[in-house]
From TrEMBL:
This is CAP domain-containing protein. CDD domains: CAP_bacterial (cd05379). Residues 99-210 form the SCP domain.
Length: 229
């Protein structure tokens, strides 16, 4: 109960109390699988929280936290001359297709954080920062699958990278919308059911060109091998 109270206080501090109230205490507790992962920052823990809320009830996430993100984003970009190009409208095809993809998402297997996987995510984010890259490939040319397979051999895996955001809700919503990415790969990683991805590593790091980058690595592991269960 104490941890749940802290979570709700955190959501209220973020200005999301109206939306938090639409989620039950049980749902918020279930989603907070990274609560005790001391190798993650609070913002990184909240990334896991939001990823899991999407998987618990995709449609509810669409009409609560995603709506808040879009409203805040549109308010921020209103200062620019090309506001009409930048804003996310309710007719934006990425916005409308997201509802179609999130509506059937209910009570999927949750993501649980893993310390080793997080170290790999952090290492890649730091590499991107050090070398001013925007790629799934390392500066030495290694593919993400090679980096991960060293410690997670013969597992289904995938990777999301986000640029420009440092806060958890913005990162998750930006990847969910996947504007400008026709294949919607980031979105489908988050709501994955095909590959049974259930383990996640997360790192937010500075980036010279985009201010911030966030790396999320996903692996499918047998449930009894996954950490923090």
């Amino acid at each position: 109960m104490y941890k749940q109270t802290l979570l709700l206080i955190s959501l209220i501090f973020l200005g999301l109390s109206t939306y938090a109230q639409k989620w039950t205490d049980a749902e918020l507790r279930r989603a907070n699988t990274a609560a005790n992962a001391d190798y993650l920052t609070n913002e990184e823990k909240d990334i896991v929280l939001y990823l899991n809320l999407v998987r618990i009830d995709g449609e509810k996430f669409y009409y609560t936290f995603l709506e808040d993100y879009i409203n805040n984003y549109n308010a921020k970009v209103k200062q620019y001359r090309n506001y009409n190009e930048l804003k996310i409208t309710r007719t934006n095809p990425y916005y409308t297709s997201l509802l179609k993809h999130l509506r059937p998402v209910k009570n999927l297997q949750l993501f649980y954080p893993d310390e080793k996987l997080t170290a790999l995510s952090r290492g890649h984010a730091q590499d991107l920062n050090r070398n001013n890259l925007e790629s799934h490939d390392s500066s030495n040319g290694d593919k993400f699958s090679k980096r991960l397979s060293k410690y997670f051999p013969n597992k289904a895996m995938s990777e999301n990278i986000d640029f420009g955001y440092s806060t958890s809700l913005e990162i998750v919503c930006h990847l969910l919308l996947d504007c400008g990415v026709p294949a919607l790969g980031h979105r489908f990683n988050i709501i994955d059911q095909k590959y049974k991805l259930n383990t996640v590593g997360v790192s937010i790091q500075p980036h010279p060109a985009y201010s911030w980058c966030a790396v999320m690595d996903f692996v499918a592991q047998p449930v009894f091998y996954s950490n923090n269960r």
